[in-house]
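Trying the structure run again after the queue cleared.
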Amino acid sequence: MAVTIKRLAQAALSASVTTRYTAPAGATAQVTEIYLVNTGTTERKVSIYQGGAANGNMIINGLAIEPGGSVIIQDTKIVIAASQVLAAKQDVGTDITMTVYGVEEV
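Done. Tokens:
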């Protein structure tokens, strides 16, 4: 199996839970780092989901990020099986940029 270290996703979040990464069929991915940047002037709260976009898949709920601030989540052990997803949302607006790095094994 080939192992690739890569940026898995990068996008501005919205107030709707949206898939940001889907593991390819026949592959497994591990998220190693998540960077969250608030480019706005108001505190925002971020929720992250693993495996699906339902509330039962939420792994981070309402993580507060100050205006102009950043949060780095390092050394994660989030595993995403084939065809499963990593999804995220913020409370309102589109001020948060999320960048996800990890390892994909195909």
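Strands lie at 3-12, 18-22, 28-38, 44-50, 58-65, 70-80, 85-90, 96-105. Worth checking whether this holds up in the mutant runs.
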